[in-house]
Structure formats: structure tokens, C-alpha cells
Amino acid sequence: MFKQQKSFQLKEADVQRNWLVLDAAGKTLGRFASEITKILRGKHKPTFTSYIDGGDGVIIINAEKVVVTGNKEAQKEYIDYTGHMGGLRRTPYRVMMARKPTHIIEHAVKAMMPKTRLSNAQLKRLRVFAGSEHNMAAQKPIHANI
User: Fold this and answer.
1) Dist. CA 27–CA 141, nearest whole Å
2) Rounded average pLDDT over 101-125
């Protein structure tokens, strides 16, 4: 009657990685970060295996042109703790965008990844650049539209 489907499990030796260039200009921060997370983890491939690092590398350009919706530009804060008493630092979104626009995307993607050793390895393949130029030509990146 029905043909039995065979399950597929990716092996470490069979992993093929590409590098994708994504343009953040005009993209909404959260939606864009979730797409980046999907690519880093390898969930965009039919060969996705949860315990194998089969994701691709991602190069983000124009990080300073990412947008947020609603009042997040005025209300969103990045919280950092120095480890000393009274060392809680709150940085508003606008200040962070002026100082380190790359940190905004890195922070959003890192928060969306699972908190595992595998995702730490996957995050090392994320490169974020504030301008439209990048220095990753040796990886032969593919321009993707997301």
C-alpha cells in the first residue's frame, strides 16, 4: 500500500556550509533576527538534524539601518552588569545604535538561539558589519534576499 519513508540523519562529514550575505537595511529587528537564527542553526535546509551543526555562515551588512517598530526606539534598553556593587548599566536603544549598531543585531540573534554548546559554535559564524562593505570575500558569500 504505502511505501515506508526512511528517516534521515545528517553526519558531521556530510555537512556543506555556505556563507550568505543579508542586507539589514529597512528590516524589522526581531523578524530579521529570527531568520538569521534559522540560517545559523540550519533549519532552512531539508537536511536539518538537531544535534549536528549543519547551519550556514551569515554576513550582515548595513546593520545601522535596521528598524524597530512602535516605541521601542525610545523605550528599549540594553542592560549590562559589571559585577561590582551598583554596576548595573542601562543603555538606551538610540545610544547603542549610535555607539555599536552591530551589537543590536548580535544581541537579538544570541537571545533567539538555544542556550547550548552547539549554538555557541553556530554563533561564531555570524559576522555583522555596520556599513555596506565587508571583508569576507574569501568565503565566496552568496547574496540572499530575506
Assistant:
1) 20
2) 97
Rg of the chain's alpha carbons, rounded to an integer?
18
Residue 79 pairs in a beta bridge with 90
- Provide the whole-model pTM: 0.91
State the pLDDT at residue 10: 87
Give residue 1's pLDDT: 64
Cell reading at 50: 538537531
Instruction: For 120, list phi and psi in degrees, rounded to 5.
Output: -65, -40
Residue 9 has pLDDT above 90, yes or no: no
Using a 10 angstrom Cβ sphere, with 0-12 exposed, 13-18 middle and 19 or more buried, the burial of residue 44 is middle
Among candidate residues 136, 1, 113, 117, the one with its CA nearest the CA of residue 59: 136
Give the three-class secondary structure for 57: strand
Alpha-carbon distance of 83 to 117, in angstroms, equals: 24
